[in-house]
Sequence to fold (249 residues):
Amino acid sequence: MTILQEKILSYYRNYYQIQLNLPNWEELVRSRMKEEKFEEKKIDRLERFLGKFSGKRILDVGCGTGGFLAAAREKSTSVFGLDPDKEAIEICKLKGLKNVRVGRGENLDYKDNFFDIVYCYTVLEHVKDPMQTLKEMVRVVKKNGKIYIHTPNYLSFYEGHYKIFWLPKFPKFLARIYLKLRGRSTKFLNTINYLTPPKIIDSLKKFPLEIKLIKHPISKPQSLLGLCIYFYYKIFKIDPQIEMVIKKI
Fold:
């Protein structure tokens, strides 16, 4: 096993087993050993929303271990990333990624109007100040550039990190009891901000932007509980995940 593989194994074992205590953590860790292949499959779809990556300067806010950046550099040679976790950035550098640094979304150390694309995947729900992070992403993206946001919708009945049934805006003092009953670690819950589409859109009202929410089909389940949740989503027009493209105008 290479040094890179050992570091990835250690990093994701800590995440899936120690922080979340997921029962299938070993399977999830193995999937991360080839995360670039997974990200490559996503890029063709992303280019339909964001435009071709070729010739674009791209920033990944919360780049983690660099799976997206490693895949994106096959399309664009100008990829940048930052993450608050030093170990994650070390792994990025072992993958040959050069323009990566330790940093936080609330204070992007880049010039105004610097990037063509800003990418933020399942990160916004963890930053200390989501609204300040959004403002920073708007600041560093060019006019006519695009920001891609993907984050859980906490009006839904699913928690994607713990991978379990969840109540909308589940009060955290009750959620901790529930997690303990389900055999999950509660510490990670402290890192989660309950985000919703209105909360994100309201925070961006004062900026000259075009915001497009990407809708996802919801399959009709067979169980009674599943049907109740299905009609809840349909009646209140709720998508279990928030995926949006923000264009700066």
